[in-house]
Amino acid sequence: MNQWAFVIAAYAVTIGGGAVLALVSYIQMRRSER
C-alpha cells in the first residue's frame, strides 16, 4: 500500500467528520431556537 491511499483516507475521515459535526451543530442550533 502506497502512502497516497493513507493520505486520501485521512482526508476522507477529516472531511466526513467535519460534515457530521457541522450537521449535528446545525440540528442542535435549530432545536435550541425553538
Automatic annotation (TrEMBL):
The chain crosses the membrane at residues 6-27. Keywords: Membrane, Transmembrane, Transmembrane helix. It comes from Sphingomonas jinjuensis. This is Heme exporter protein D.
